[in-house]
Structures are given as C-alpha cells and as structure tokens.
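To whoever is on call:

I kicked off a structure prediction for a single chain this morning and the downstream step that reads the tokens threw a length-mismatch warning. I double-checked the sequence; it's 284 residues and nothing unusual in it as far as I can see. Pasting both halves so you can look.
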Amino acid sequence: MDENAQHCFPRIRSHYSKLSQKEKMIADFIIANPEKIIHTTISGVAEYLGIADATVFRFCKRLGYKGYQAMKISLASDIVTPIKDIHETINEQDSEGVIAQKVFRSNMRSLEDSLRILDEEAFQKAVHAMLHARRTEFYGTGGSGFIAMDAHHKFLRTGMSTTAYNDSHMQLISASQLTEEDVIVFISHSGANKDLLEVLEVAKKNRIKTIAITHFAKSPLSSRVDIPLFTVSQETEYRGEALASRISQLSIVDALYVNIMKKRKERSKASLQKIRDAISIKKI
C-alpha cells in the first residue's frame, strides 16, 4: 500500500504512547495545526518548536514515512477527507446509555482506523499463505489467547487443519514439530511478549511462515515475522489499548476467514455440512 494512503492521524495516535518527549511535542503541534503544517517547511516546524530539523525528520520516519514531505501529503489527505474525531471521555454525569454510545463509537473508530492502515498486499500474502499451508496454528497469550481460540473455531469450518494455543510451553512444543509447509499466526497487541518472541525464534529455525496481527507500531514481533497485519486503537481512562484493539483483531481474523472460505468454496461447503450434521444431535 502507498504510504501516503495510510492516514496520518491514526498513525500518530497509534504511536503516541511510545514517542519521546520531543516527538510528542511535534505530534501535538501537528494535531492542533494540521493546515499550518501543510504550508510549513521542516525547518519552519523545527524553528517554531525549538528543536533540530533532524528530530522532525526522525519523527516522520518513526511514523513510517520516507520523510517530511511524505508525511505532509498524507496529512493533506486527512484534511481534505477529515476523519471524524469521536471523543469517548467518560464524564461523571454520563448516563448508562451515553456510556454505551461512547464505547460503541470508540470501537467504530478503532475499526475505521485499522481499515485505513490495512496493507492490501500484506493481507493478500497472508490469505495466500494460509490457503496453501499444510497446517495453520494460532498463538496468543492473555486476552490475545481468546482471539486465537476464536480464529481456530472459525477456521475449523473451512476444513483446514488448524489449532490454537495460549500456553507458551504448548506453543513451543507445537512449533518445534511444524515445517516450512505450515503457518503460525501470532496475535499480540504489544508485539513485545517475551514468550511469543521465543516461539517466533523456533518458527524461524524451522522456516515456518509467520503472520502477526499486532498494533500499528514498530515492535520486535512486527519487524521479525514474514507478514505483519496491523490494528489501531487508542487508550482511554477506562480501557487500555489492548482492550480496545480486540474488535479490530477479530475483524482481521474474520476478513481472513471469509476470503479463505470463498477460495475454498466447495471444500468449505462440504466441511460446513459435516459440522452441521455433527452438531445437529445437540439440538432439541
């Protein structure tokens, strides 16, 4: 995907908590003065903030742009097609219904932002890898472990050979038995989980194809897997980023599932019918 097509504001939000003090100063200035940035040189921004040109350039690179000009083009797109900023700050006087609305809107924003940064080429590679894998396994720990289990539950319906593990020892054991014909999908919001990174090393040694569903920021996991797929979420007073990211992680899993069901049409139909026949005995 063209880097300029990936909107600037979601990038800033996703990286903000990991920025240095000076980088946060730049981010705040961009968010408060987007139109001014469009007509200001890198030297102008640096002079206004009292920092070096190189600091502004490094900030742009941290967001994933080639440089300041690329960041400005992306920002201009946000201004022409503004992204609705939904404030979900919970106030003491908010009713239960208002709080519910804010939670729903926050989830909607996470989905919209994650869709905007979706790399279609990477997504196509992920579908292709899973489609041609001998076996696909899903690994996650904590809350991400539940996403992994949900993925396993879905992909069982395709007729593919699949499983999920949320225990690090089981992940290591299973990964040690896989080959270059297999795929592991790592699910981790932070992308810095020590246990998953240890499993990744085993996967690399066995030349297993690796995919990650993780937060849109540079992390040890996203930089080392074969195919990274990203989500965007924003931390709030009552919900951490990892909690807010679940809906986007689930949506990426759903999108992969629907694509593979479509491409395995006849085999998937047969598999679904077998499942329906098997669980029919559970119905009254």
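Update from on-call: the warning came from a stale cache, not from the record. Cleared it. Sanity check on the structure: The first strand starts at residue 136 and ends at 140.
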